[in-house]
Amino acid sequence: MLHTLMDFLGNLAIFLFGANKDGSVDRIVFWTFVLAIIALWQLWEMSRTARADFIYKFTDGFFNQECRSLILLFEYDLLTFEIKKVNDQEFPCFKLDDKKLKDLEGIDGKLKDNFKPIYTMYDIDDKLLGHFEDLGNYERKGLLDIQMVYEGFSYYIKSTWENEEIKKYIKWEKAAAQDMWTGVEYIYSKVNAYDEARKCKRLVGLWKIEWWWRTLRNLYRRQKN
Q1: What pTM, to 2 d.p., does this model score?
Q2: Which of 134, 147, 152, 163 lies closest to 195 in space, CA to CA?
């Protein structure tokens, strides 16, 4: 049995790497292949290290006091989307619900004092949604892995994107420019799909191939229509 296995492996090696005139495996080709595999493995490890460093720096910039406050306010439904008109121009903003805030006991008093009565669209764009837009674009370009995004930011992405007041704001923005916040929408959809794959205990590699194929198919259908 062992002799048969060794013969099979020897024939397989000759098939893959070629043979010398005496019938032995071409060692030059074999060791070139081994060195190539080692080099690829080292590149993969370097890529993982670079991504981990990238996500660490991004996380450090994301969890600042302003961003945390906005996430908290949306989580407790303390902000209401409004359109203010000035000289026939529309200015979107988010108004703090003072009454609801006073009734909440789980928020520290000092933190409450730091909340602003009005948050402009620039506050929301620059200090919250812009971070998620960057996450979507970075992941789409391969700078971040979806597992890293999911483990570090899935809760914040979901709770923000699913907030009813944020939905109203996004709808208002897209009425003016349809391509607004495509990165946030993309990463929200992918995080949800990844979450479903994890719950079903599917192989991540297989799921990534399915996601890639589904993305290409949807892109083709949009271009065709």
Answers
A1: 0.70
A2: 147
